Amino acid sequence: MNQLNNVRPRLMMMNEEQIQETHNNVLKVLSETGVRVDSPAILQMLEWKLGLKSQDCIIKFPQEIVEDAISSAPKTIDIYDRRGGHKLKLGEDRLRFGVGVTALFYQNPFDETLDIFKRENFRDLVRLGSSLKYYDVISTVGIIRDVPEEMTDLYGSLEHIANTTKPLVLLVSDENKFHEVMQMFEMLHGDLGSKPFIIPYFNPVSPLVMNAGTVDKMKNAIERGLPIIFSNYSMAGASTPLTPAGTLTLLMAELLAGLVISQTIKKGASILLGMLPVYFDMRTMLNFYDPQSILISVACSEMMNHYGIPHCSTSGSGTGWGMDLIAADTYWMNTLALLLSHGHLAPFIGDSLGSKSISPTTFVHTHEIIDQALRLHAGFQLDDVNSAVDEIAKVGPGKNFLKSPSTMRNYKSGYYISNVYPHYSMEKWQEAGAPPAHQVLREQTQDLMASSSAPDDHDEFIQKGEQFIKKHEV
Which one of 265, 339, 349, 410 has the minimum C-beta count within 10 Å? Predict the structure, then answer.
């Protein structure tokens, strides 16, 4: 494909002057307000290596230290699958997608009713996400609640690694279990850092707190040679200013503080930075994605593009009461906006009801959204062959293009055909019993889940992993 003749849609928010103004505001926060670092070991390391002094655990980063961290962070990150095959080059590639969130409840694909999240749900969702081609990574999909509470991260992580060979985005809810999860993965797989397929996910506590659990786990992962995601979560009007610019400034300051910490732990450590900028409704005490949340995330992607640092974006998840019209609106808006900007990874598709539940029907419908959004993002070829001027002249007025060269070349791929929703005419829809779209989605999801299989080494991983877990039970 000749890229010179490819016309593609683009989305741009800030010009260079506005990017620089944002950067200057962030530097001012870091150098004058600073961040609180709750880990004594990490705080001591920062003081010693950077020649800084803290007061009441608050440390301030001057401009030159921040700029040095930006310049030392890798511009791209190579990600592999569990078998060692190269899959992604984050920072250079288009936006990639993943499923998962640390949900407490599971919405079944039969009627979307809720139940506590169980080990079998973890298994089934990982396999489903792995079977859908536009999901490039599988994130932690829930917090298992039918095992002893202190073991949930170990059992969940075991199901995570055993049921897919795709790259994993790993969330460990109990900070004290992260090292044991890493040990289990090393026991099952061997070295994790040479061809990394695991990307641990960490987040600070807004506003401006680098909590001990986060930075200590960062050090553990970085020393193992793993790339990491450092992402923050706002509730505008509560943990960040209500204005979009204020939220962007504060969250960017936290991200660059995390960057400084990562590069101080190990210069050249691979890191993705991003934010989940939600709003907080003080009337209902609920958090939600607003259209301006998407704008803030796009602005963050532009800042990361300016710095040359891979960006981890919001996935538009959490909104809706399952896979419904509310969720579809947010997923479409988020997917398209981030594809048309500078996003590199959106790893948390599938949750609803304020991120407390997760639904397999959301996996399947959002996969359809991604399929269509990728077609829009790809644009089209504008050249002599595709413009078909000679073909139009040959057919002439009043005839048709059913057998023309452009039709014969492109009829199989020239337009979008859903893998879930049939292209029914009114008559065909009536003949099929006038099914509502949500019924078709649920039936397709059930079929996909029934046909999604495990990797051939699944049983071996489960057996060895369970033996490891039994040795570590309290």
Answer: 410
